[in-house]
Automatic annotation (TrEMBL):
This is Class I adenylate cyclase. Pfam families: Adenyl_cycl_N, Adenylate_cycl. GO terms for molecular function: adenylate cyclase activity. Keywords: Lyase.
Length: 949
């Protein structure tokens, strides 16, 4: 270790200029050593770039790289090229001749510094050259623009030499105030929110290439808090000349908000590249845990130089970080975290110690890493494991992921707690922390149905050459099966002796996991043991292709805007009948069915449902891949309901794909399901809409209210009619699936419902007639009645509806600014008559009964009673019949009275012509269907009594 005498200058005793020169020389000694190390790892052409950069900023020459104009800022403070650099320039451009500047010309370029990994143990062939170009604060804007153009040209030239260079313009005066010209000052910088942490990194890592040296070098650590007065004394008393130094500020205090900003930035990057971020994340944690008395690493570095500890290995920026983290974690007894950062450092350095060096002589980086791993007591096996990271597969990656995710999650919790404790949770920080929390949640949180992503930047390729896919009985429950994936190509006798890479209850869950993690790619060979399933190699191949097409990898980074909103489906893939033959019995008998009824939900004469299972894969706006399985009698409707409920209210819709590869009728099944989803989706909106679907002999009514979609399963046609007769909160259109109620008159009636309208439909069937009504809210009422003629069929209903409308209108306020629209009553006949299928509707005029024509008036008043009962009072031509008088014999008494009024005591039906439900319905939602239902019940009781009287 290089060790010299410690220097402790005291401004009060007067500072010896020789001491300051000695200090500067020490920093330059370390700087020179780092620059030499940087050069060693560069190619000849890259070395040329680094050597020539100071000269190229010092002169303007039309034939040299970076030339913009003769007036572009040029001149590097205190720089004079040596013969070796001039020789390099002449080799580049033979006509170049260097002319030393005479007198005291302006030197607008105050300093050049190299940032990044160059000169460190982690320097690699692809390491960037991040160059800070510190210029005169008095440069006008036009000159700064020319300087920016010069930097762009130099970057382009460097690229032709195999060097990736990034030039960042720095105005020292503005920088000390936290105001940057370049929002980013390194290619790994998150912006303006980390001024002091960036300055800390600059002071301990930057390599000086030319120009003025940092004034900060000359301020002892114990004077950092008095930086302003100390530097003022140095300059004011001419211990240091102003044209020799560059002032970028001090590190006496770091605001706590910077730790939050730095931590959030590293966490954001760590989600995709955790190894690169863990070291910086943990350093941020160390700093934050010491706040407000933070001993940042740049101050340790400066103290070491002042103390004469100039060992380049121990002053290496990465080693300095590691030693600080080792000290912190050892003190806390956190052995697992310490092992993780050791792995991160080893992988960052990327020197494979388990293999011999490429050259006979070992590099200084390899020697340093060998010394470190020796301290850590790593075995050859440990080194071989890490060195084979490019070949890591599922098991190694899964184990490493746990440690990395634990570290990232811990860091997020630490940051959140720190923000609350220090009360630095400004609205911006709170929002950013919330977004970051969601980003971590989306990337790493486990939940039911979510496909876990196990390889966040751990290994380059998890694809396996050969795999075996097995369906076998599940140990969970008798009769159930499971799917498992094994390494290699195994036969039926071999696979039970091996541990699978992954198990899943359902095949698609397993295939989705393989796809999301890249375990299966286009070159993977799969051996299939389908077990009791009907899965074929053809279907398996197509399932994998569908996954690859629907969810191409890699997934794009989730935008912040997406994370500010709840996750919503972006791509949905529906896979129907995976591993199932819906016509298996026919396939086994080798029977090919021919039928005119080809609907996949009611196939053949026995109306078979061919949609038996659905597997839904949904990639949402947070890049979460979710898998749901639907089977059982209502699989299709449950899937459709959940899909519709998952959609956002603002009308955005996911990209939906439906695929089916089963043995029989696959294309037709997929097309039918896709049409159904598309139809239901087209009716999902703000208005309360319904959708009627028939599956086999059963009916399903979907309530299409966004976010509250539900479905009612109805076993037969009478159950459907009863359901459609339920009251509605408002007008509700009913849309029929293209195959629903095929051949039924309801298929013509139900789709034409209209708001603010009562529609009456009748169909004659010999001595009977089917009477149907759609009320103003599109509720259905239906009654089968004896038929004599249209007049006697329709007139009683017309009178009843007129009385209902009269009562409804009588309750409405006359002074309302927007009175409800008057309800029209429309009549239709369903044609043709049975036994032919109903084919069309014809509009009919209302029945015309003369006003003078007498009719028997039967009015009913229904009132609530105890225990959900009602009291009924009937008026026959204004004569009262009540339960108070007749009790349970009420309807018999009315029947006898009616028969007594008829000429020949005929027992033809009697109809209720007026009904009051005001005490039942109150002032609330009085819907026509309520009146029709009570009318039916009262007429049934009354006509039953007529037949018995």
């Amino acid at each position: 270790m290089t060790r010299t005498q410690e220097i402790r200058p005291d401004i009060n005793d007067g500072i010896d200029r020789k001491v300051l020169a000695q200090l500067r020389a020490r920093f330059l000694q370390v700087n020179g050593g780092r620059l030499d190390r940087a050069m060693q790892a560069l190619s000849t052409r890259q070395q040329l770039v680094l050597r020539l950069l100071p000269l190229l900023f010092h002169v303007n020459h039309p034939l040299l790289p970076g030339y913009v104009s003769g007036t572009a800022p040029a001149g590097l403070s205190g720089f004079e090229p040596d013969e070796a650099i001039l020789a390099e320039a002449i080799r580049l451009t033979r006509s170049f001749t260097y002319k030393p500047r005479r007198g005291n010309p302006p030197m607008p370029i105050h300093g050049l510094f190299l940032m990044g990994s160059l000169g460190t143990v982690a320097q690699a062939e692809q390491s960037d050259m991040d160059l800070w170009v510190c210029h005169d604060p008095l440069l006008p804007a036009a000159a700064v623009a020319e300087l920016r153009r010069k930097c762009d040209l130099l970057e382009a030239w460097a690229a032709t030499q195999g060097a990736e260079a990034h030039c960042f313009l720095v105005d020292p005066a503005r920088f000390t105030l936290g105001d940057r010209e370049d929002a980013q000052l390194t290619s790994d910088d998150c912006g303006t929110t980390q001024h002091y942490l960036l300055l800390d990194e600059f002071y301990r890592t930057a390599i000086w290439l030319g120009g003025r040296t940092p004034l900060w070098w000359l301020v002892p650590v114990y004077e950092e808090a008095s930086y302003a007065s100390y530097t003022q004394a140095l300059l004011g008393k001419r211990f240091v000349r102003g044209e020799e130094v560059l002032d970028l500020g001090n590190l006496a205090r770091i605001p706590p908000s910077e730790f939050i900003g730095a931590g959030m930035w590293q966490l954001f990057k760590g989600i995709e590249s955790p190894y690169k971020s863990v070291l910086k994340l943990l350093l941020t944690e160390v700093y934050a845990s010491e706040h407000p008395k933070v001993e940042c690493l740049s101050l340790r570095f400066k103290q070491a130089v002042f103390a004469g500890r100039l060992d380049l290995d121990e002053l290496d920026p990465y080693i300095v970080v590691y030693r600080r983290l080792e000290e912190y974690l050892t003190a806390r007894g956190e052995r697992e975290r310490l092992e993780l950062i050791r792995r991160c450092l080893y992988l960052k350095v990327n020197k494979k110690l388990s293999s011999p060096p490429r050259h006979r002589a070992k590099s200084w980086q390899r020697l340093l890493l060998e010394r470190l791993t020796g301290e850590w007591n790593w075995s050859p096996r440990d080194l071989a494991m890490l060195d084979s990271r490019s070949q890591w597969k599922v098991r190694q990656v899964s184990a490493e992921r746990r440690a990395l995710v634990n570290e990232l999650t811990y860091s997020y919790r630490f940051l959140s707690q720190f923000a609350r404790t220090e009360q630095t949770g400004s609205q911006l920080n709170s929002r950013d922390l919330g977004v970051l929390g969601r980003r971590l949640y989306a990337a790493f949180e486990r939940k039911a149905g979510k496909i876990e992503f196990i390889n966040p930047g751990i290994a380059p390729d998890l694809a396996e050459d050969t795999l075996t896919l097995v369906n076998s009985p599940s140990p969970e429950a008798e009769g159930e099966t499971q799917w498992a994936l094994y390494n290699g190509s195994l036969n039926g006798q071999e696979w039970p002796d091996f541990a699978p890479l992954k198990r899943a209850r359902e095949l698609i869950e397993l295939l989705a996991w393989c796809h999301r993690n890249g375990v299966i790619d286009s070159s993977t060979r799969l051996s299939l043991h389908p077990g009791s399933s009907d899965l074929t190699e053809f279907e398996l191949s197509n399932l994998l292709s569908s996954l690859q097409q629907a969810i191409p990898l890699p997934l794009p980074t989730v935008s912040e805007d997406a994370l500010l909103h709840a996750a919503e489906p972006a791509t949905v893939l529906l896979l129907v009948n995976v591993g199932i033959d819906p016509l298996k019995a026919h396939s086994q008998l080798n029977v090919h069915m021919t039928t005119g009824r080809t609907d996949s939900l009611g196939y053949s004469g026995v109306r078979e449902n061919l949609v038996l299972t659905l597997d839904q894969l949904s990639l949402n706006s947070w890049n979460e891949l979710l898998v749901s399985r639907y089977d059982g009698p209502h699989a299709l409707l449950d899937c459709l309901r959940d899909f519709l409920n998952s959609l956002p209210a603002d009308g955005r819709r996911p990209n939906l794909r439906v695929r089916c590869f089963c043995r029989n009728r696959a294309a037709a099944i997929a097309q039918r399901v896709e049409e159904l989803f598309s139809d239901a989706l087209s009716h999902l909106g703000e208005q309360h809409q319904r959708y009627l679907l028939q599956v086999q002999q059963h009916y399903h009514v979907l309530e299409l209210q966004p976010g509250q979609v539900s479905h009612a399963a109805l076993g037969d046609l009478p159950a459907l009619i009863e359901h459609l007769g339920e009251e509605q909160p408002d007008y509700s259109p009913l849309h029929l699936d293209r195959y629903a109620l095929e051949g039924e008159d309801l298929a013509l009636i139900l789709p034409i419902g209209r708001p603010d309208c009562i529609q009456v439909f009748y169909r004659l069937d010999g001595q009977q007639a089917e009477l149907s009504v759609l009320d103003e809210y599109n509720a259905l009422w239906r009654q089968r009645l004896p038929y004599r003629d249209e007049q006697s069929l329709l007139t009683p209903l017309q009178r009843f509806l007129q009385s209902v409308l009269y009562r409804r209108n009588a309750l409405l306020p006359l002074d309302s600014p927007l009175p409800p629209a008057a309800l029209d009553v429309l009549y239709y006949e369903v044609l043709p008559a049975p036994p032919q299928r109903a084919k069309h509707l014809e509009r009919r005029a209302p029945p015309q009964a003369p006003v003078s024509h007498p009719f028997y008036d039967v009015q009913a008043i229904v009132e609530p009673a105890d225990n959900a009962r009602v009291h009924v009072t009937l008026y026959c031509n204004h004569r009262e019949f009540s339960e108070l008088e007749y009790g349970h014999e009420l309807f018999s008494a009315v029947a006898r009275h009616i028969l007594a009024q008829r000429r020949e005591a005929e027992r033809y039906p009697c109809y209720i012509t007026d009904l009051d439900l005001s005490r039942i319905l109150g002032d609330g939602h009085a819907q026509t269907i309520h009146y029709l239902r009570y009318k039916t019940e009262l007429e049934t009781a009354l006509n039953s009594a007529l037949q018995s009287a």
